[in-house]
Amino acid sequence: MTNASDTIESTINAAEAAHFGKMAADWWDPRGSSAMLHRLNPPRLAYIREQVDLHWNADGTGFTPLAGRTALDVGCGAGLLAEPLARLGAAVTGLDAAPENIAVAEIHAAQGGLAIDYRAGSVESLRDRRFDLVTCLEVIEHVEDPARFVRGLADALAEDGLLILSTPNRTPVSRLAMITLAEGFGAIPRGTHDWNKFLTPDELTALFEDAGLRVRDVRGLAFTPSRGFALSDSTALDYFLTATRA
């Protein structure tokens, strides 16, 4: 018999998990349904490396700034971010709501000789585990109860840890770019986003503060035809938010 105290209330949205699970086999194809994520990875990694170096006083020249540290990638998909984090030296745990994604991630990591602890489930299922770095990129707009989800991320963060999250902003720009154009013309699979579930930087900052976190950086992610995706001072389309324990 399961005790009430042992029951874990998950923030996973089953429909969202099923949507992304259908994309699992195509995840590592840079021209497939996850092509947009492949284009996002370079500025993502640049931002993460910048924040990691700043937080742990690294000089920015080493190849493995996360050596000796643990990292958790929440909503890892098939491992597009988890694998680079492992190559940066971290002992990585990848967590995703779709078991199909985890199966593909495990195979791809093994083919690349990477030891990554992949798990299917919600962040709440980790219970008492703590990580030096927690990443959660383009995920919070797909979960049930964002406030509880943020508390789960905060609970997974070590005392001197670093939390990096990215998500689309709820603006006319994001509606046009991500819903009307990207989904309308097939760059992103239709039904991937619900614009009404996007959070503004102020709304997300409030959730972080309520969870006992201190936001230390907010940076935009912009797109231009000439440059593609790049870090920006404008948060109108998408943005990163970095936090530590308060």
UniProtKB/TrEMBL annotation:
Protein's GO biological process: methylation
Family: Belongs to the methyltransferase superfamily. UbiG/COQ3 family.
Leading EC class: transferase
Keywords assigned by UniProt, alphabetized: Methyltransferase, S-adenosyl-L-methionine, Transferase, Ubiquinone, Ubiquinone biosynthesis
Matches recorded under SUPFAM superfamilies: S-adenosyl-L-methionine-dependent methyltransferases
Annotated EC: 2.1.1.222, 2.1.1.64
Sites where the protein binds S-adenosyl-L-methionine: R44, G75, D96, L137
Catalytic activity, as annotated: a 3-(all-trans-polyprenyl)benzene-1,2-diol + S-adenosyl-L-methionine = a 2-methoxy-6-(all-trans-polyprenyl)phenol + S-adenosyl-L-homocysteine + H(+); a 3-demethylubiquinol + S-adenosyl-L-methionine = a ubiquinol + S-adenosyl-L-homocysteine + H(+)
PANTHER family for this protein: METHYLTRANSFERASE, UBIQUINONE BIOSYNTHESIS O-METHYLTRANSFERASE, MITOCHONDRIAL
Native species: Sphingomonas carotinifaciens
Protein name per the record: Ubiquinone biosynthesis O-methyltransferase
Molecular function terms from GO: 2-polyprenyl-6-hydroxyphenol methylase activity; 3-demethylubiquinol 3-O-methyltransferase activity; polyprenyldihydroxybenzoate methyltransferase activity
Function text: O-methyltransferase that catalyzes the 2 O-methylation steps in the ubiquinone biosynthetic pathway.
Gene3D superfamilies: Vaccinia Virus protein VP39
